[in-house]
Structure formats: C-alpha cells, structure tokens
Amino acid sequence: MHFNVTEHPSARWAAQQIVEAFSWDEAPRYLLRDRDGVYGTDFRPRVRKMAVKEVLIAPRSPWQNPFAERVIASIRRECRDHVIVLNERHLRKVLKTYFGYYHRWRTHLSLDMDCQESREVQHPESGRIAEFPEVNGLHQHYERTAA
After folding, report:
1. For the whole model, what pTM was predicted?
2. Is residue 133 helix, strand or coil?
3. 143 CB-contact burial (10 Å; exposed 0-12 / middle 13-18 / buried 19+)
C-alpha cells in the first residue's frame, strides 16, 4: 500500500505517486478517478505510458467511487477526527500507524470479519487474552498469549 502527504498537490506530484504506488509491470488495468484538476498535464500522460485506462466518474458524484469514499470516511471517522495533527511529519506518522492497524487488525464486513492481512484463529488453549494498543492507544487489538 502506498500513501503520501502534501500541502500543495499538483499534477506532477500525483503523477509521481502513481509511479511509486505501482511498478511498471504491476500497474492496474483501470484507474477510477474523479475530475480533480490534480489529474492534469503531467498525470495523464504518465498513466497512459503505464497502459492504465482512466475511467472518469460523473462530475460531483462521489458515490460512483464507493471504495475510495469508504476508506476516506474510515480514515476520518476512526483516526483523523480524534487526532490533532501538529505538522506534515506528524500526519505521516499517524497515517502510517493507522494503516498498519487497518490492514493487520481491523476487521472488515466484506472479508467475513477478517482483516486484510488474514491471521489464524487463536483457540482458548493458546493462552489468556491480552490487549495491545494501536495508533498510539486510539485503537486496540487483542491476542492470546502464553501464560
């Protein structure tokens, strides 16, 4: 997973992010995106060279990209609404720890209440349940530990 933060997004910055997110041989076939100006002169040729077909959603129609809207809402509701961000470096650290929690420990209904990084079921004989803080204590995960 790739993420980055900037105060001033531009087409050049967005184009660099798509390159960093996918190597040339791993790029997706399609990119579903909105009509934001950040996808401009530098971005579109870069995507074309990667053989990615852009699919534009209708203007002012965020519901046409429900996956992006859902993850953005989760980030806001479960993380950003509870943190006062001090600066860009702090935001990067908060997001990095949240994404680690999101992939390794947060359950998802669409995955039958499993995590994105699946893990084995821990049976009662594995030990007592212990609580571990995540995202600087904002969330927790639980594991069985040997006595």
Report:
1. 0.76
2. strand
3. middle
